[in-house]
Design a protein that fits this description.
The chain is an alpha/beta fold. Strands 6-7-8-3-9-10-12-11 form an eight-stranded mixed sheet, with helices on both faces. Strand 9 and strand 10 form a beta hairpin.
Length: about 325
């Protein structure tokens, strides 16, 4: 199976005199045939990671390894080969579909860009793709405005599948559809993964959705990965206080009393001028705001560590279940 690994990835945007580091030296690995969930608040850099993998934004540093080959800077045939194996479903199907192109045309265009098929084979493939995502053949001649939001997202998924990818990047694919439709989209993705053997990078700010979809979860805060673990381990015993806050915010999924839950304080820092040391220390419920002796949090950026097995957290004082432990090596 195709492997996708990100190593030391950084992406910077220049806004006037300021430079915004949207993604700052992160590592990710998508499990072959499985799902890596990437979660965090809006503006933390999740979508930028996806666009950097697809080479839609310039990469300032780091590598994107597809079966061990670095695809950063790919152009021409190499970029086409990347897009043949890795496809992306965007957040907003209203914007990602061409309103002047019928569904059949949109799917045919994707097919002919990456595959050599005769006219009859192409028509049969369009019908097969529509069937895969639960739409009937009458959809071929219709335009995007004639479909509901959930149906448009199905069309977007079909278009991504048209090139026969090994890996699908799903960027907030349920955030623009009604809650009643979200479950059908998620179940569709799970079924496609089972039948087609796809690997997923599933991006969302919704932890409940990530928990349902993912085998492994990486948690992102202000451009950095703060925790990564198998899904069950992360939700059972988060080790980074930011992850703990997120897990505690999920309604009816934890047994802790309201008094025992961790909560954020303060506002999200300006990403153009992130705090020194641990970027979470200005809001951390176990950091220097409540424990003044923990100055290391303000002064030194923690490396991923203090974890158990494959469960790692970038925290000087990682949690052990519900209790804080001593400082990790710095």
């Amino acid at each position: 199976m195709t492997t996708l690994d990100v190593r030391g990835l950084s992406v910077r945007y220049h806004t006037g005199a300021a430079t915004l580091t949207a993604v700052d030296g992160i590592d990710l690995s998508v499990p072959p045939g499985g799902t890596l969930g990437l979660v965090g608040e809006s503006g933390c850099g999740k979508s930028t990671v996806a666009r950097a993998i697809m080479q839609l934004v310039p990469v300032a540093a780091g590598r994107v390894l597809l079966d061990g080959e670095d695809v950063v800077g790919a152009r021409g045939p190499r970029l086409r080969a990347l897009h043949r194996r890795v496809q992306m479903v965007f957040q907003d199907p209203y914007a990602s579909l061409n309103p002047r192109m019928a569904v059949g045309e949109a799917l045919s265009e994707a097919i002919t860009t990456h595959r050599v098929l005769g006219a009859r084979q192409r028509v049969a493939e369009v019908v097969r793709l529509l069937d895969l995502v639960g739409l009937d053949t009458r959809s071929v001649t219709k335009y995007p405005h004639q479909f509901s939001g959930g149906q448009r997202q199905r069309i977007a998924i079909a278009r991504a599948l048209a090139v026969g990818p090994d890996i699908l990047i799903a960027d907030e694919v349920t955030s623009s559809v009604d809650v009643s439709v979200q479950a059908t989209i998620l179940n569709l993705l799970k079924e496609l993964q089972r039948t087609l053997g796809l690997s997923f990078l599933f991006i969302s700010h919704n932890l409940a959705v990530v928990r349902y979809m993912s085998d492994v979860v990486s948690v992102m805060y202000l451009g950095r990965i703060v925790e990564c673990a198998p899904t069950a381990a992360l939700f059972a015993a988060p080790r980074h206080p930011y992850t703990r806050v997120l897990v505690d915010s999920i309604p009816k999924t934890v047994s802790r009393t309201s008094a025992g839950r961790m909560r954020l304080s303060g506002d999200l820092p300006d990403p153009r001028d992130p705090p020194p040391g641990c970027r979470f220390h200005t809001r951390c419920p176990i950091g220097p705001m409540t424990h003044p002796d923990r100055t290391v949090c303000r002064d030194v950026a923690p490396s991923p560590g203090g974890g158990i097995g494959t469960h790692v957290a970038a925290c000087h004082f990682p949690l052990n279940g519900t209790q804080a432990t001593g400082p990790a090596a710095v």
